[in-house]
């Protein structure tokens, strides 16, 4: 339940998608790492808030309490602390596990890939953060998924807003998760939840509402830096200062056109400490409405400066910022698109089929195909002693093999091969 | 316990190794598939003989009984039966799990990669089987692991030998597993185990010994086909006939030089029904003895015509033959070799570091690196506002970046970039 086999057509599309993502990660100088799918249960406990109940645990009679990893970020932080690594730029593509109620039509699985890029280390502010946004921008552009928008915010700005609206600090995180719903429900409903479920006063909710509905660019940052109340809050001032710096760098990268400083962005996870970001695909005007998978969040991330310290016996911190590409959602979109277009995805890369028109020439086929393999050419033949030429050419058409190398009696005598362009139905003797 | 993190240096070497293996699988027209790491427990039960106790089970309160996959062959057979696939050539590279006593110095882990290529379908005899041996030969040659030998046998020949030595059929499998130890212990010890532990008569053991110590090529096959007793056994006759055909095909492939028909090869798994094979690395004369990882089995496989049928409600059979590359063992060998050679494995592919000799040129670096990324060039920069040129060049040397693109005041004024060959210490203005 909640898992699936990936047949060759899936894998071919998935490999194409991952190749684009990995190429971008490598272009930015990232190294690959891998960690076990199994972690000690205690490593995962207390990291995912309500997500904790979704962790898969393993029976290990008389041994360690184990669990399947829930994401790649916590294992990364554990890896850094365990190996005392204070400086690394890495990517990691691997499966994670969540004992969730599967909703496979909406792309929610119990086993799925995550695809993470992170920069760990003590650096000058906002330079790695800007690179993470550049990476999101490059990948979404390279994949040609259509128009997109990258929302950016900072946990320190949000916390500053809550503080000047007189929200007690104990309610920051829960208020955050209500704010985060602004992309799915109108302000009125979010306001009701703040008052009804989270117990904020209507006045506090309204004051929060004035801020979290704002979005813009450098102009908005400047305006908030002048805001008489917000500019008094130390955290907010730091966050806004860094946001300004970030926008300067993004301007140099030439990507501010698709970036929005959006105060409604909050992100679910507890461990973020600074900049947070999320990329959404924008519904095209000519899009069909029955394609719900074509909108929504396709990448996200942020800064988490405290997580590595929780795994270090002395609490030594390693600042980190990273981005996670929502590969499963992007895969669904690409798959729908391929289906709609009627494009036939080849599942193999075979260049040539070695074929014979007569029945007793298996030996000639075996000899020729062996030479082709040894020369590095991707070649197949049918595993029959005497298949008909029609069947062999049909196999080429079915699987998209562009060429057939045909050897019959005459070719053997003449010491040549007849090379046939399957689509054009043209032959040359070589 | 029994698992490990793979740091960047591991991953770089591993990616190199897997690229060679995947290139070979694709050269032979295989498509990729993936299956979940989680399987229903009942799928795995009864497939691995004594291995069953090593299966990892999962807590799933009130739900399905789950287990982590133990190999890739059983999930492949389950996949074929479930999707009624009767014809496929696929490869699968993924992690498998065994709750074994870890012996990490000997490369025995609880989580490790398997790397399988299989051909499923009803075909003319020995053509796919020969291709599996060709694949082993290509991969071991491509990886330049040193001299190797591929041992080949057939379960039907072994069973025929047991039958004419009057072994009861109920003891075939257990006798098989004793025979399989002939590569690690002398005949005398194997004989003792047959008599002492397996309860065979000394005469029966001696008669088995006459056969299972034989190895050779076509000549041996011909001799056994003339053997007055063995040739009377139907199974053995079929096996020997197919072995002869196999050697004909291997001759056409030009690889018999490294193939040995070896009657001591038995292989552990229960599900083999025909040809079985195993590749071993041969100790070089000038090898150091303290490198024990450099000998032993590095690939194996065989024909299993009954496994898919066990998952089909109507028992419909899909004949299969496949090969598994022992990627973990090969990785250990390559790792030792890299260590011994002192070669420094690059963990990133960065082509150029964008550097500045003066302190206030961060903006220039960000602009230039952004252009390089957009042009598809792998580029890095230090995440500092004003790093010294020495530090920047040192970073190139530490990480193997071949070029530095340097922009200072003068270059900015002239509209050029100074491109430095780090190793040669030569610069050109472009």
TrEMBL record, chains A, B:
<feature type="binding site">
    <location>
        <begin position="271"/>
        <end position="272"/>
    </location>
    <ligand>
        <name>L-histidine</name>
    </ligand>
</feature>
<dbReference type="InterPro" id="IPR033656">
    <property type="entry name" value="HisRS_anticodon"/>
</dbReference>
<keyword id="KW-0648">Protein biosynthesis</keyword>
<dbReference type="GO" id="GO:0005739">
    <property type="term" value="C:mitochondrion"/>
</dbReference>
<keyword id="KW-0030">Aminoacyl-tRNA synthetase</keyword>
<dbReference type="InterPro" id="IPR041715">
    <property type="entry name" value="HisRS-like_core"/>
</dbReference>
<dbReference type="GO" id="GO:0005829">
    <property type="term" value="C:cytosol"/>
</dbReference>
<dbReference type="GO" id="GO:0003723">
    <property type="term" value="F:RNA binding"/>
</dbReference>
<feature type="domain" description="Aminoacyl-transfer RNA synthetases class-II family profile">
    <location>
        <begin position="1"/>
        <end position="357"/>
    </location>
</feature>
<feature type="binding site">
    <location>
        <position position="98"/>
    </location>
    <ligand>
        <name>L-histidine</name>
    </ligand>
</feature>
<feature type="binding site">
    <location>
        <position position="267"/>
    </location>
    <ligand>
        <name>L-histidine</name>
    </ligand>
</feature>
<feature type="binding site">
    <location>
        <position position="118"/>
    </location>
    <ligand>
        <name>L-histidine</name>
    </ligand>
</feature>
<dbReference type="InterPro" id="IPR036621">
    <property type="entry name" value="Anticodon-bd_dom_sf"/>
</dbReference>
<dbReference type="InterPro" id="IPR015807">
    <property type="entry name" value="His-tRNA-ligase"/>
</dbReference>
<dbReference type="GO" id="GO:0042802">
    <property type="term" value="F:identical protein binding"/>
</dbReference>
<keyword id="KW-0067">ATP-binding</keyword>
<dbReference type="Pfam" id="PF03129">
    <property type="entry name" value="HGTP_anticodon"/>
</dbReference>
<dbReference type="Pfam" id="PF13393">
    <property type="entry name" value="tRNA-synt_His"/>
</dbReference>
<dbReference type="GO" id="GO:0004821">
    <property type="term" value="F:histidine-tRNA ligase activity"/>
</dbReference>
<dbReference type="GO" id="GO:0032543">
    <property type="term" value="P:mitochondrial translation"/>
</dbReference>
<dbReference type="InterPro" id="IPR045864">
    <property type="entry name" value="aa-tRNA-synth_II/BPL/LPL"/>
</dbReference>
<dbReference type="GO" id="GO:0005524">
    <property type="term" value="F:ATP binding"/>
</dbReference>
<dbReference type="InterPro" id="IPR004154">
    <property type="entry name" value="Anticodon-bd"/>
</dbReference>
<dbReference type="InterPro" id="IPR004516">
    <property type="entry name" value="HisRS/HisZ"/>
</dbReference>
<feature type="binding site">
    <location>
        <begin position="71"/>
        <end position="73"/>
    </location>
    <ligand>
        <name>L-histidine</name>
    </ligand>
</feature>
<comment type="similarity">
    <text>Belongs to the class-II aminoacyl-tRNA synthetase family.</text>
</comment>
<feature type="binding site">
    <location>
        <position position="114"/>
    </location>
    <ligand>
        <name>L-histidine</name>
    </ligand>
</feature>
<protein>
    <recommendedName>
        <fullName>histidine--tRNA ligase</fullName>
        <ecNumber>6.1.1.21</ecNumber>
    </recommendedName>
</protein>
<keyword id="KW-0436">Ligase</keyword>
<dbReference type="GO" id="GO:0006427">
    <property type="term" value="P:histidyl-tRNA aminoacylation"/>
</dbReference>
<dbReference type="InterPro" id="IPR006195">
    <property type="entry name" value="aa-tRNA-synth_II"/>
</dbReference>
<keyword id="KW-0547">Nucleotide-binding</keyword>
